[in-house]
């Protein structure tokens, strides 16, 4: 099949996805008129070990709504909550709304509105609860749909402080549901790096990937720790392996080695460093390439392998140590993911989680390693909303969304897509065709925890 024919096929597939959602919309609207709606505000939370992620639906038509939900809410209360959450991108000293990730024109149970994505450090949970109490957010709903380990850890504190009951949902179920729901809203949610080079930003290019028929795939959720799930259908998935060496390890080691205090500071230092001043390379051992096994001299033979030499320690700066830490953690994750995919007979590997937030170095390191070691037969795939999928899944539990197999009839967003390439899985040297996609979302979210 020619590249032009492939492009037409890809475009037709994406347009078909949008048409399916539009076709079902009118039927859904008529069917939900008599339905009893959950009380607003509609939101979902993923309470992780490092960050709390919150997804909030802002209705833009609430003033004209006559739904049962509105009748049960004190006039003006929802507007006050909405105004507070959407009028700023910062809450206190550490809360952040990722405005660049918001999804507009979403239809949820008869309401049109915007999905907002908010995060704050888990260690500031007490301040968040004080804020909820101060703003009287619990006056409109006494339940909060949650997922993540913190839903158990902080359950009593939340009940005692703001008198809200937690409705807990399975973490992995929320993750998978969240991924597929957002992908239906944004067909270019998934992407890969073409010509990935961690050292050359100009050489690398972000390219949309058509995730319409993804099964089976391996999702690698990189938070404080790492969990890897083999996903064979919307309701058939299992955790197949993981590692304790994740984003929390990177941040902890950077704090010890460099004196930094935040994830952002650690990433900034890593972006300026050179890991080869700390790592022992193949050329340090063989004087060049190890040709018998096809190992270039630039391949890392031992992470931090030069740090036992006093002169090397004196040459390496803190930024070099941060970079070496980042590369060490990332390479380990990529290696385990590749072996897990081979064992499970899976071609697609999707990396998610907030370790990848504003972290192109880690993304490109994963992408480069995956291409190199598989000779181009596997691509490292990434997602725009990286660490928010668990919270999205909790939000779906809140509004009663149940069908994970087809485009949602009552939750739909129009997205203009000209083309998204499909990567051949059989060719060892793929010919990648770049596409143009109209999308205002750039990659960047929050720090997460998997387990």
UniProtKB/TrEMBL annotation:
Primary site of residence: cytoplasm
Keywords linked to the UniProt accession: ATP-binding, Coenzyme A biosynthesis, Cytoplasm, Kinase, Nucleotide-binding, Transferase
Biased composition annotated in UniProt, kind: Basic and acidic residues: 403-415
EC annotation from Swiss-Prot or TrEMBL: 2.7.1.33
Gene Ontology molecular function: ATP binding; pantothenate kinase activity
InterPro entries per the UniProt record, alphabetical: ATPase_NBD (IPR043129), Type_II_PanK (IPR004567)
Coiled-coil parts of chain: none
Metabolic or biological pathway, per its Swiss-Prot or TrEMBL entry: Cofactor biosynthesis; coenzyme A biosynthesis; CoA from (R)-pantothenate: step 1/5
Range of residues in the leader sequence: none
Gene3D superfamilies given in the database record: 3.30.420.40, 3.30.420.510
Catalytic activity reported: (R)-pantothenate + ATP = (R)-4'-phosphopantothenate + ADP + H(+)
Keyword Transferase: yes
Region listing for Disordered, in residue ranges: 403-451
Enzyme class: transferase
One Pfam family per UniProt: Fumble
CDD domains named among the record's database cross-references: ASKHA_NBD_PanK-II_Pank1-like (cd24122)
Similarity comment text for this entry: Belongs to the type II pantothenate kinase family.
Name by which UniProt lists this protein: pantothenate kinase
Source species of the chain: Strongylocentrotus purpuratus (Purple sea urchin)
């Amino acid at each position: 099949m020619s590249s032009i024919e492939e492009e037409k096929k890809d475009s037709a597939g994406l347009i078909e996805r949008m048409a399916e959602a539009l076709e079902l919309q009118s039927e859904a609207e008529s069917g939900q008129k008599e339905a009893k709606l959950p009380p607003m505000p509609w939101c979902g939370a993923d309470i992780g070990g490092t960050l709390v992620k919150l997804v909030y639906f802002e209705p833009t038509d609430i003033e004209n709504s006559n739904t049962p939900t509105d009748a049960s809410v004190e006039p003006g209360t929802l507007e006050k909550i909405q105004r507070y959450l959407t009028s700023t991108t910062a809450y206190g000293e550490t809360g952040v709304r990722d405005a660049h990730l918001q999804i507009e024109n979403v239809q949820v149970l008869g309401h049109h509105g915007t999905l907002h994505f908010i995060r704050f450090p888990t260690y500031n949970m007490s301040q968040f609860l004080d804020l909820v109490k101060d703003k009287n957010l619990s006056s409109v709903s006494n339940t909060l749909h949650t997922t993540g380990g913190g839903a158990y850890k902080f359950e009593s504190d939340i009940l005692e402080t703001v008198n809200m009951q937690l409705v807990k949902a399975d973490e992995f179920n929320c993750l998978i549901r969240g991924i597929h729901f957002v992908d239906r809203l944004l067909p270019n949610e998934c992407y890969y790096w073409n010509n990935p080079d961690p050292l050359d930003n100009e050489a690398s290019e972000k390219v949309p990937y058509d995730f319409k028929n993804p099964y089976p795939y391996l999702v690698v959720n990189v938070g404080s720790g790492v969990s890897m799930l083999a996903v064979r259908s919307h309701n058939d998935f299992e955790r197949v392996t993981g590692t304790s060496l994740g984003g929390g390890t990177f941040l902890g080691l950077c704090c010890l080695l460099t004196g930094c205090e935040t994830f952002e500071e650690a990433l900034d230092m890593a972006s300026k460093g050179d890991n080869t001043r700390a790592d022992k390379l193949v050329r340090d051992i063989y004087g060049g390439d190890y040709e018998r096994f096809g190992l270039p001299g630039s391949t890392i033979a031992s992470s931090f392998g030069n740090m036992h030499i006093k002169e090397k320690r004196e040459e390496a700066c803190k930024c070099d140590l941060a970079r070496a830490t980042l590369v060490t953690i990332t390479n380990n994750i990529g290696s385990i993911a590749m072996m897990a995919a081979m064992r499970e007979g899976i071609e697609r590997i999707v990396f998610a989680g907030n370790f990848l937030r504003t972290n192109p170095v880690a993304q490109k390191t994963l992408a480069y390693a995956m291409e190199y070691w598989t000779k181009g037969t596997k691509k490292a795939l990434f997602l725009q909303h990286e660490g928010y999928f668990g919270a999205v899944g909790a939000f779906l539990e809140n509004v009663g969304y149940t069908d994970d197999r087809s485009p949602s009839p009552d939750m739909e967003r129009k997205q203009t897509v000209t083309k998204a390439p499909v990567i051949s899985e059989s060719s060892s040297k793929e010919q990648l065709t770049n596409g143009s996609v109209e999308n205002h979302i750039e990659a960047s979210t929050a720090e997460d925890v998997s387990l």
